[in-house]
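Data deposition worksheet. Section B asks for the primary sequence of the deposited chain exactly as it was used as input, without tags or linkers unless they were present during the calculation. Section C holds the resulting structure in token form. Section D is free text for depositor observations; keep each observation to a single sentence. Incomplete worksheets are returned to the depositor.
Section A, Depositor: J.P.
Section B:
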Amino acid sequence: MSSSSLCLVILGMHRSGTSALAGCLVRLGVPLPGEKLPPADDNPLGFWETTKLTLIHDLLLNELGRSWDMVAPLPEGWEHTEAFAKARRRLLEWLQAETANLPLWFVKDPRTCRLLPLWTSVWAELGVDPRFIVMIRHPEEVAQSLAARDGMELKQGRALWCVYTGESLERTQGSRRVILTYEKLLADPVGELQNLENRLGFSFPLPVWHAREDILGFLDPKLRHHTRVKKGGNTSKSRLDELYEAAAQGYWPRELALSVWQEYASFLEEEARSHRRRVEQRVLAATKVAPVPFCRVTVPVGKEEGIGAGCFLLFPGEWDRLEIPIFHTEGLRHRALRIDPLNQIGVVRLASLRFLSASEKKELGSFVFPKDIQRVTGGP
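Section C:
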């Protein structure tokens, strides 16, 4: 990796115009490392996100008991967990492989807003100079867009906007950054992109004016399906209007944001209960476009087929430790504990198997493979 590597970091809540900005950077010659997510019906211009990076983020959030659409704060001390260390190692290896000798590149995934401490530690080790572009769109437009795409409640969408936007602004305070609204980008893309160069102190590989026609052809204002109705006259501003205007100036009024967030707070318990099911469905869909096995572990119960004990992402060529709760050991006498790949054909290799007492934390038995394969399977 180049010692003077500069990374343009696009931050912003989902549905805030981050994909539109990323598409402009691509047309100006800025590389996006890694395999790209394909376009979708809800984002025909392309997401301009990397499959491996999205999976690293999703897996970390999953192991922390969270997902991108959960309003709850990340667990206290999450930066010191095994999940963080694992994600950091994966991110470091991916960046070393994909950004070597790139003097300028960009990264874009809205989840980065919540996971900036992960990135900060990796940038520091690699000697990368991050420059931030925080995309801001009115929270009501974001909430309407999420409601149309995902069926999300407007309250949840507004609360999520507060979480993503607040963490983006507060964690980049004092860093080299530009605040850019989706509205301004669509109104004057050439002027705003030139402003990025000037304020962040770098030059695009292609001059903005040379790519002007390509950029204007790419940014179709008609794709902005959700727009708020602006109030005129002496009509008082809503809390969302005040938050938007403050964020667009790089200021974050915490107390005002908290009042919007608390409207959804009563749903946090239900959010946590439905987390596992929603994450499994979403991550399974994501892994269909990436070379990462997604496996379900099934534990037998009595003589019945069994119940799902969880789903796991298993990165190819990387050993991992799975902790599987077994509440009824009798079932193992009749049926096998199964690990089934869900999204692709693959082989899962087991190095060892340990049984621990949940109450006493005492080892009840252990097996090392392939030496103990006959003891486990009961074969000849």
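Section D:
The mean pLDDT is 83.
Strands lie at 6-11, 104-108, 129-136, 177-181, 294-299, 307-313, 338-341, 352-356, 363-368.
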